[in-house]
């Protein structure tokens, strides 16, 4: 597990790009999300330390059985405070032919001596034409 970045060691200017992976499922437990996620994705973040803003994208989704899932999720209205981040998540995923609107919030912690990575979790809802269910996720990304 990565060491959280000390708030005093956070950059106060410049930008950084991060890339990594995310795992999603209906269980709000890290072990379940790591061991048997319903789907996984790539993740990319762009942090602007001067303005205290962060945005990003979750894309290239794949289901647990290897099925392709089209669409993406956007990280927006993101803020960086001390060594933490939070943002809205919204988007649409086509899962087994069904359009699913996703909305929620992501929170995370910068890691490493000088914000070399970001790790965090997200919680929200997944709504199709016939159902609304909880959606949870975890993510990790490095510069």
What does this structure look like?
The chain is mainly beta and 143 residues long. It has a single domain, classed as Beta Barrel (Porin), CATH 2.40.160. The protein has one helix spanning 30-35; strands at residues 15-25, 39-48, 53-63, 68-81, 84-95, 98-111, 117-127, 132-142. The chain has an eight-stranded antiparallel β-barrel with strand order 1-2-3-4-5-6-7-8. The longest helix is centred in the N-terminal third of the chain and has 6 residues, at 30-35. It is elongated and about 45 Å long.
DSSP summary, beta strand count:
8
pLDDT averaged residue by residue: 94
H/E element order: EHEEEEEEE
Helix content: under 10%
Shape: elongated
Please state the CA-atom Rg, rounded to the nearest Å: 15 Å
CATH class term: Mainly Beta
Relative strand content:
over 45%
Distance separating the two termini? 16 Å
Number of helices: 1
Judged by helices, strands and strand pairing, the structural class is mainly beta
**Major sheet size, sense and barrel closure:** 8 strands, antiparallel, barrel
Strand order across the largest sheet? 1-2-3-4-5-6-7-8
Provide the domain count.
1
List the helices and strands and how they pair.
Elements (H helix, E strand, L loop, with lengths): L14 E11 L4 H6 L3 E10 L4 E11 L4 E14 L2 E12 L2 E14 L5 E11 L4 E11 L1
Antiparallel strand pairs: 1-2, 1-8, 2-3, 3-4, 4-5, 5-6, 6-7, 7-8
Which properties best describe this structure?
single chain; 143 residues; mainly beta; Porin; 4% helix
